[in-house]
Write a sequence for this structure.
């Protein structure tokens, strides 16, 4: 409230679910009214409550409501909001200097982050990294590098993909509304192949990987011409597309197709990377070693930072001045990223992500067995989802049903997010700092919401 003391976030924040007002409450409604006069209508919110503090596994709003956080700011606060190492490093850097522009006066923390990403990324051989401001900017730069290194213009992406909202990344993104409608014309030389989406593959999940790989090869060889393609860009787990985990073996087939045709493989790890899935990078689950890899979201614990890590000879193909930007690799964000790596190591957050995933997927499996509106359960580590369908057994996407379940969760103190090309997926991205108690309580809230919507669907 105005004039009142504000709660302090981080791990010391009370780890409780508490609803003391309607959602959104009076103070949030007041701020929403103010927002309408200041911010364009195109900027929305999944849960329109204004945040005062966050930490551990909770978010506290301006009305004193405390929500269990199953969103992590869309996979950004993976190590926890205001995690100690992140907050302490960023605060100390703020006192030293806030900016010089690395391309005017460099600083060591930029090198430290690049060194860490070069060490960790599953890119073969000697590596180089550049730092940027966002995931979309990372993808843009990865495409620039691929085109410069190969001298080819084409980029192949996949159905259900999301890569950003800039002109190029919007062109790479598959879903029309709300990301593309009315914003064309789009960037040229973008080609789209089917994604190996097991639940919705027309023949069967077992044939999915092979048939999707055949379709990619056919697109490259017959329609586009492999010699015209600089790179294939793929998410190891699709994010906004609905947390689609490609059919087993598909990613390795994609890598082989690229290798035999001299096409670069770019893996977009912006949502799935940085410990989210139980590995530092999600492509490691299938042993993929891409030529270029993009990161952002969870990289700096909430501060804006993205990166492209790639084979040295590719990264060095761009002439001096061809990469970078005024704010790229801001020193405060760099220190925050170093804090993220400290938190991951100190608290064994890779193992924690696996534990969270096991708990969630087991629970979702029981939901799916009990309620036919839960059509599919998928994910890896602390990146999981359920796909909501109509109760008729024909896998008809049910976006309104997913939205109602989300609203029930929000009203009962659990933040969940929707996703998917059909808008019918509930995705779950809890911070790895969440306690088992809060995790299980959140799952209970979700289970009650699904049960109530199932009853509504039947009666």
């Amino acid at each position: 409230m105005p004039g009142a003391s504000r709660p302090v976030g981080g791990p010391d924040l009370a780890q409780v679910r508490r609803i003391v007002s309607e959602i959104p409450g009076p103070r949030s409604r007041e701020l929403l009214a103010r927002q309408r006069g200041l911010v364009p209508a195109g900027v929305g919110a999944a849960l329109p409550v204004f945040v005062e503090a966050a930490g551990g596994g909770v978010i506290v709003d301006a009305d004193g409501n405390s929500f269990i956080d199953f969103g992590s700011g869309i996979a950004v606060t993976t190590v926890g909001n205001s995690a100690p190492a992140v907050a302490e490093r960023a605060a100390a850097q703020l006192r030293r200097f806030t900016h010089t522009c690395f391309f005017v006066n460099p600083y060591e923390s930029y090198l430290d982050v690049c060194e860490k990403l070069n060490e960790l990324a599953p890119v073969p051989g000697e590596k180089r990294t550049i730092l940027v401001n966002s995931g979309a900017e990372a993808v843009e730069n990865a495409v620039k590098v691929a085109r410069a290194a190969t001298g080819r213009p084409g980029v192949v992406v996949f159905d259900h993909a999301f890569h950003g909202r800039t002109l190029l990344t919007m062109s790479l993104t598959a879903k029309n509304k709300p990301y593309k409608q009315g914003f064309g014309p789009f960037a040229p030389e973008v080609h789209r192949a089917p994604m190996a989406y097991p639940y919705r593959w027309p023949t069967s999940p077992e044939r999915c990987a092979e048939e999707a790989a055949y379709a990619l090869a056919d697109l490259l060889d017959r329609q586009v011409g492999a010699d015209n393609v600089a790179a294939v860009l793929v998410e190891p787990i699709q994010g906004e597309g609905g947390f689609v985990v490609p059919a087993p073996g598909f990613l390795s087939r994609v890598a082989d197709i690229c290798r035999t045709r001299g096409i670069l493989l770019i893996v977009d790890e912006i949502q799935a990377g940085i410990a989210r899935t139980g590995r530092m990078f999600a492509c490691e689950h299938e042993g993929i070693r891409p030529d270029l890899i993009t990161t952002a979201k969870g990289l700096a614990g909430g501060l804006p930072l993205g990166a492209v890590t790639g084979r040295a000879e590719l990264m060095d193909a761009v002439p001096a001045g061809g990469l970078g930007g005024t704010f790229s690799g801001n020193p405060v964000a760099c220190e925050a990223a170093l804090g993220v790596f400290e938190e991951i190591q100190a608290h064994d957050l890779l193992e924690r992500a696996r534990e969270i995933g096991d708990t969630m997927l087991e629970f979702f499996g029981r939901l799916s067995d009990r309620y036919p509106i839960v059509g599919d359960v998928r994910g890896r580590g602390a990146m999981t989802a359920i796909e909501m369908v109509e109760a008729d057994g024909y896998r008809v996407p049910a976006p309104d049903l997913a939205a109602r379940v989300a609203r029930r969760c929000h009203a009962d103190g659990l933040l969940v997010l929707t996703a998917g090309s059909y808008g019918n997926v509930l995705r779950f991205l809890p911070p790895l700092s969440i306690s088992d108690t809060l995790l299980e309580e959140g799952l209970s809230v979700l289970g009650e919401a699904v049960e109530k919507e199932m009853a509504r669907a039947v009666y």
User: Anything to note?
Assistant: The first helix runs from residue 26 to 36.
